[in-house]
Amino acid sequence: MAVLGAQFVFSLGMFSFLQKLSPFFSFGRWMLSSRLVRYLHPTDEELKQLAGIPTSGGKGKGRRQDFRKMMNNPKDESFQVPRNLPIQLDTAKVEAIDLVQLQFYSEYQWLMDFSLCAVIVYVLTEIYYVISQHHIEFNASVLWCLLTIVFCFRVLMTQGAIYLRTEEGGEKVLLFTFGFFFLVMSMGVLVVGDGVLEFGLEEGYRNFSEGAVEFLKRQGVESHGPISFITFRIILVCLCTAIGTLMTFPGLRLAKLHLDSLKYHKESIILQILLHINYMLPVVVILLWVKPVARDVLCGGGMFFGNRYLFDTQFDSLRLIIVVALCIIRLLLMPIFLQSHLNMAHEKVERMKKESGRINSLELQKMVARVFYYLCMVAVQYIAPILLLLFFTFLLKTMGGYSWSAVFGDTVADMFSGYQRPHRRSSAPVMNNTAGSILETAAHFSVTLADLRAVFTPVWYQGLFSFFLWWVCAAWFACTSLGVMYYSNVADS
Q: According to its UniProt record, which protein family does this protein belong to (predicted)?
């Protein structure tokens, strides 16, 4: 308990809460059910009536099938109908029972529910750190943040594997193209020094290498350091290429949803402004790590900028708050974007009406039902980058030694920095051998943890997590911008 303390109680409570509450309430399910409207595909009977085809009166022809049954439906039971049929699609609210059959629903639900619990644990831990002593405790919320990041990358890798296995090959070529693009981009970013992009990678790695050498010397091992800085950069390039490739389809998907949302909400000026802010806010986040544009201007650190508007600690806190604000805005806009995706079914039917020729009835039904079937896949592509940004920010703040309240000034920062409670003087109790061995083990673990903290210092975490946070945001925005350019040209043509 001296090492974990009350955080262990928070974690156990959240695990139990997640397990007990999931059958009755799910945050991910609540975000989709009763908040969205989907389009229902026409039944065989409706299509035959519109096409003037006599119905056979067989059982079940007037009922709608789910997408999985539709995929297994034999082709010989279908029929041909004109493309210009006056089809009017029925609508229905998305209910919880409808979501079970959707692809990636379980992954989406788990990701949303687990991330909500991780946020709760993180907030409780931050409050606990304000009001209590925490010199020797291990921050358990870091594990929750790391697990959420791992789950996000895992589900994105699963989707990427699906795109690579497609028979058409267009998605595969697109992934390799963007992968090469991000390979070149990451090499260019890492060449730029800390005087322009202030990640602090060089200083952080130097600090880590020196701490590792000292730690190994205390263990009786002679070493010149873990790896060279060039090798470290090569590893970062490989990781950045993989992350950028995983951001390809989430970025392109967000571009399509952004343009469709602007089209569907032309009458609402406030929503239009909010959508544009949502699109441009990542540019602000990216520029906040460009030292000549952000820190030198706001903190007066450059040669031509003498006025100081913020102190360095305030600026660091402001960056974290802006990233969290970006995540909150995008989470609030999630129902609007997902509704824009569901509206694609109506758009496809309206576009089909303008074409000549005939279409198979089963293909028409699949065209409409497929939009709803991939709803959770779209939701995962939308929410996973948001969670990556949010939890990388949490890790940067916690492991990098930053403060949320520093932006409000030293008085508020000191108020929330925690206070030292006076130690109560008490006589040492008489302990048996078992209690003594437990305390010795805890003391040994605390010493080992202190040695590791001397290796993995806040300077190291500042450089590492700042870089990954910036890279996820930059890669996602780059894919989104290219997608906006592509879909805008397609719409114009």
A: Belongs to the TMEM161 family.
DSSP H stretches of helix in 80-169:
96-99, 105-131, 141-164
Contact 480, 251 (CB under 8 A): yes
Encode pLDDT of 178-215 as tens digits: 999 999 999 999 999 888 999 989 998 888 888 888 87
DSSP assigned state of 77 = G
- Taking residues 52-64, report their average pLDDT: 62
pLDDT tens figures, 68-78: 666 556 555 67
Q: What are phi and psi of 95, to 5 degrees?
A: -105, 165
What percentage of the chain has pLDDT greater than the value 70? 82
Q: What is the total residue count of the chain?
A: 493
Closest CA to 28 of 380, 394, 393, 389: 380
pTM for the whole thing? 0.88
Which ranges constitute the DSSP H helices of 22-104? 27-32, 44-51, 67-71, 96-99
Give the C-alpha separation, 486 to 478, whole Å: 12
Does an H or E element contain 38, and which? strand 37-40
- Determine the distance from the C-alpha atom of residue 34 to the mean position of all C-alpha atoms in its chain, rounded to a whole number: 24
Q: How many CB atoms lie within 10 A of CB 41?
A: 26
**Are residues 178 and 480 in contact, defined by beta-carbon separation less than 8 angstroms?**
no
Q: Which of 91, 82, 92, 90 is nearest to 48 (CA)?
A: 82
Separation of alpha carbons 452 and 214, rounded Å: 11
* C-alpha angle 240-180-166 in degrees, rounded to nearest 5: 100
What does DSSP say about strands 80-82 and 358-360: parallel, antiparallel, or unpaired?
antiparallel
User: Helices (DSSP H) in 201-247: which residue ranges?
Assistant: 201-218, 229-246
Ramachandran sector of residue 357 (left: φ over 0; alpha: ψ -120 to 50; beta: rest): left
Closest by CA position to 262, among listed 449, 484, 28: 484
Calculate ∠ Cα 478-269-324, nearest 5°: 45
